[in-house]
Design brief:
The protein is α+β, with helices and mostly antiparallel strands and 163 residues long. It is 27% helix and 28% strand.
């Protein structure tokens, strides 16, 4: 059996005086303000985590991440993604499609690094990780440069081959 999950996340940029790194898909992008949030606010990994929750029906972003972040001080979104992956049981991810909306930064130079990093985290071939980016043409807050929005769609199948 195949299933498809969709997830999304968005965060505003931090203020200029805040010293937080911008992290997308687990990749640090230098020269830009980070995103507001208790964690590293990696909207790409958060969207993937939410897509997995859509399949497993176990919400990770919320109570579980509050325990990890606020109680244990774990701010790395890769840890949250790992928590979500553990809820998939016998399901195997076969593809992820990611769409990012942001005026800044220019994402094209970072897409291959993000694909490589995400494929490693998900345990899938890099050619099963698609990432597109758009500026949004200034129509939304993200297209105006006030933050970053991400949508992720994940396709999984039963790993044991049962229908």
């Amino acid at each position: 059996m195949y299933r498809v999950g969709i997830g999304q996340d968005s965060h505003r940029f931090t203020e200029p005086n805040e010293n937080k790194k911008l992290v997308l898909g687990g990749v640090v992008i230098d020269g830009y303000h980070g995103l507001k949030g208790n964690s590293d606010a990696d909207v790409v990994l958060h969207a993937i985590t939410n897509a997995i929750s859509g399949i497993s029906c176990v919400n990770i972003l919320g109570k579980r991440t509050d325990e990890l972040c606020l109680d244990q001080g774990i701010t790395d979104s890769a840890v949250y993604l790992k928590e979500a992956l553990a809820t998939l049981g016998n399901k195997e991810i076969i593809h992820v499609s990611i769409s990012i909306e942001a005026l800044i930064p220019k994402l094209s130079p970072h897409i291959e690094s993000m694909r490589k990093n995400i494929s490693g985290m998900l345990g899938i071939d890099i050619n099963s990780v698609g990432i597109t980016a758009t500026s949004g043409e200034g129509l939304t807050e993200f297209g105006k440069g006030n933050g970053i929005f991400c949508t992720a769609i994940i396709t999984v199948k039963d790993a044991d081959g049962r229908e």
